[in-house]
Amino acid sequence: MSGGTLIALAADEIIMDPDAVLGPLDPQIPAGNIVYPAPSLINIAKLKGVNAREEFLVLADVAEKALQEIQNIVIKLLTDKLGEEKAREVAKILTEGKYTHDYPITVEEARKLGLNINTNIPFEVHTLMQLYPQALQQRPEVEYLPRPPVHFQPKQHEKE
User: Is residue 136 exposed (0-12), middle (13-18) or buried (19+ Cβ within 10 Å)?
Assistant: First the structure.
């Protein structure tokens, strides 16, 4: 979700199905076969201070840099749409660990952030998406369902 969210933030208008979600942009820092959320690494480093292991402090340093980098990107993408102060606020919300990395940000929540969300998706888009089924993943997280929502009914002339 986070990659799609980053792409969506570059748009003047984000077109989403009413049941679609965006995701947080908190950087994930790999360490061996474990991946840590950057905000958590930074928080733990502050709590432990110099008593933390050297490797952990290095990870926390990388996490701080990654967090600043993604915030700068979000601010750059949103400033022309929201103004600099609001762009900074949204960047903090999306990156600093308010949500877990897999938290689904709904259309309503995205609108509350000030994002320009349009949920008017033509029926033909759902029809087109049925031609591109989502590949199976080893570890399912979010699955795209290639069907129009139950509440979506095409107009009579669209059926013909």
Answer: exposed
